[in-house]
């Protein structure tokens, strides 16, 4: 797309992810990084200096009142974001918010109600901003898999003991700060990806799940007060009969494992949703035999993916089109997270309710 417009961004949050956005913006002609703010003023000043951003605001409200800002990036934990997003909408600013989109589904509904005709996106779309994801989506849409029966998602991160002086982030496994643990943090990516590449057509019906907290021997590997789950298993059934089998966790005593498959009546597609070197393999029933075909080979990088995410949002603002993941789509993800947590808490399956 030929760039004819520029979107002025303000960044609320200058931590690790805030700086990732600022770095990505440097390579995007459509983006102008205009201002930053952080509770830690020194962090804000350092970020502004590093990335050549001219304005450091004293407060988020000051940034939101800045007429030079078209849109804001909310790069801070979920507990702080919903109120900021609503204030941003009231100030006439478009919003790109981190994941999980909010602490719960009700907060997402509040954001949708406040958005009006502004653009709002969620960065749970990040992993779909890859060529490999476009291939998965194309194969699913082509019908070559037939009717989708089972989707498998396994993302288990191996235990990596902290190094001397290393401090784990307080939000990562905190229900109060980030609306959940590993499932909310990384599972948001997996759910967004799988719902997205299937065209957001799958409507959840029922969820049965179990979650586990941090094992006692590893409490010294996480921040004090980490009360959220480090491991989740879930089965989600959808209208039409498709079933999702989800295994999502960290601190695993064993090898790092990542595996994703979509199996239909006519074929199975095996792929990885993470940015890496991979081959996407299609097993397909053709002329009375099962045929294996590599439908895509290549390498994805986090930097490329991040750039595409920010570019997609900026183009959505500039050209008034939906972003990669809208708030309505992010609501489906958050409703699923809530249902998984509810099932695990209650000890039995729970029914979900499609968006009206």
TrEMBL record:
Q: GFO/IDH/MocA-like oxidoreductase domain: which residues? A: 135-269
Q: Where is the Gfo/Idh/MocA-like oxidoreductase N-terminal domain?
A: 10-114
Alphabetically, the GO molecular function entries are: nucleotide binding; oxidoreductase activity
For this protein, the record's Gene3D superfamilies field holds: Dihydrodipicolinate Reductase, domain 2 (3.30.360.10), NAD(P)-binding Rossmann-like Domain (3.40.50.720)
What InterPro entries does the database record attribute to this sequence? Gfo/Idh/MocA-like_OxRdtase_N, Gfo/Idh/MocA_oxidrdct_glycsds, GFO_IDH_MocA-like_dom, NAD(P)-bd_dom_sf
- Keyword Secreted carried by entry: no
* Keywords on record: Oxidoreductase
User: Record keywords: Oxidoreductase included?
Assistant: yes
> What name does the UniProt record give this protein?
Gfo/Idh/MocA family oxidoreductase
Organism name: Paenibacillus hemerocallicola
């Amino acid at each position: 797309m030929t760039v004819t417009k520029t979107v002025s961004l303000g960044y609320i949050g200058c931590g690790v992810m805030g700086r990732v956005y600022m770095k990505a913006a440097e390579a995007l002609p459509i983006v102008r990084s205009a201002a930053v703010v952080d509770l830690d003023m020194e962090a804000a000043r350092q970020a502004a200096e590093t990335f050549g951003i001219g304005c450091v605001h004293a407060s988020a409200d000051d940034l939101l009142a800045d007429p030079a800002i078209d849109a804001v990036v909310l790069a801070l934990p979920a507990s702080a974001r919903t109120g900021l997003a609503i204030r941003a909408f009231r100030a006439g600013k478009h919003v790109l918010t981190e994941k999980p989109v909010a602490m719960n589904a009700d907060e997402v509904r509040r954001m949708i109600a406040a958005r009006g005709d502004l653009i709002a996106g969620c960065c749970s779309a990040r992993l779909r901003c890859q060529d490999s994801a476009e291939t998965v989506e194309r194969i699913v849409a082509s019908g070559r898999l037939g009717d989708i029966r089972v989707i498998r998602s396994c993302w288990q991160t191996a235990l990596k003991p902290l190094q001397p002086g290393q401090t784990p982030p307080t939000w990562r496994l905190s229900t109060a700060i980030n609306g959940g643990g590993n499932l909310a943090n990384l599972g948001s990516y997996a759910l967004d990806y799988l719902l997205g590449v299937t065209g957001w057509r799958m409507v959840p019906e029922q969820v049965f799940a179990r979650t586990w907290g941090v094992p006692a021997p590893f409490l010294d590997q996480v921040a004090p007060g980490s009360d959220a789950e480090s491991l989740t298993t879930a089965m989600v059934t959808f209208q039409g009969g498709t079933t999702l089998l989800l295994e999502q966790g960290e601190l695993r005593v064993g090898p790092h494992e990542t595996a994703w498959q979509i199996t239909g009546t006519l074929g199975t597609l095996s792929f990885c949703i993470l940015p890496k070197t991979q081959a996407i393999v299609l097993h397909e029933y053709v002329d009375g035999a099962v045929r294996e075909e590599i439908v895509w080979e290549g390498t994805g990088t986090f930097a490329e993916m991040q750039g595409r995410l920010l570019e997609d949002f900026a183009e959505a603002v500039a050209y008034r089109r939906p972003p990669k993941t809208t708030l309505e789509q992010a609501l489906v993800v958050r409703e699923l997270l809530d249902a998984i947590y509810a099932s695990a808490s209650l000890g039995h399956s729970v029914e979900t309710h499609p968006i009206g």
